[in-house]
Amino acid sequence: MNGVGWLGWLSIPAMNGWANRIKRAKEARLCPFEKNKMAHSYHKIWLHFSWSTKDRQRLMHKEFKAKLFQHIKQYAEENDIHLDTINGVADHLHCLVGLLPTIAPAKVVNLLKGESSNWINKNNFISGKFAWQDGYSVFSVSATGAPKVREYIRNQEKHHRKLTYQEEVEKFLKAYGIKG
């Protein structure tokens, strides 16, 4: 056996190459991919979140939105939430999130909404107190559907020239077979 044992065919450089590719993908946040401690447990969970400002007030102007979305994205990264895409219009936002199986969707949305509203108020971005609505929407997305949802989120301004947020929510409820 040449002194290499029965695993001699599996070279250490090949193993290191695969490990490095996984590490680089995680570092680049290319996908929410993780091998759990249990052998052969893998996941890819995409969720499309949406929520509105309190009373659907049109408070997120262009300059403010850019700062807010950057802050939310940074906060998400610091908390192991893979926020793939974020965008919105004056009264609501959408996020495409790659979810870890150990984190509940409600926890993700509560973290993002709670911290961002505190940040907005602490920095006085608007006059008065800022708050998000109490509720939110979350819909599952297939891996093959993720690019389409990503594009939908990026084009929010275009969609809302024709459609209100309420009409958009009703459209999603109907598409997912949910009675509103």
Give a short overview.
This protein is 42% helix and 16% strand. The chain has 180 residues and is of the alpha+beta class.
Structure report:
This protein has 180 residues and is an alpha+beta fold. It has one domain: Alpha-Beta Plaits. Helix content is 42%, strand content 16%. The chain has helices spanning 12-28, 62-78, 105-122, 146-154, 156-159, 165-175, and strands at residues 45-52, 82-89, 92-99, 137-141. A hairpin with a 2-residue loop joins strand 2 and strand 3 (92-99). The protein is globular and about 50 Å long. Residues 1-16 have low confidence and may be disordered.
Question: What keywords describe this structure?
Answer:
180 residues; alpha+beta; Alpha-Beta Plaits; 4 strands; disordered N terminus
Outline the secondary-structure elements.
Layout: H1 12-28, E1 45-52, H2 62-78, E2 82-89, E3 92-99, H3 105-122, E4 137-141, H4 146-154, H5 156-159, H6 165-175
Antiparallel strand pairs: 1-3, 1-4, 2-3
Total of DSSP H or I helical runs spanning 4+ residues: 6
> Structural class given helices, strands, pairing?
alpha+beta
The low-confidence parts are 1-16
CATH class: Alpha Beta
Helix-strand string: HEHEEHEHHH
Widest β-sheet, arrangement of strands: 2-3-1-4
Query: Gyration radius, to the nearest Å?
Result: 20 Å
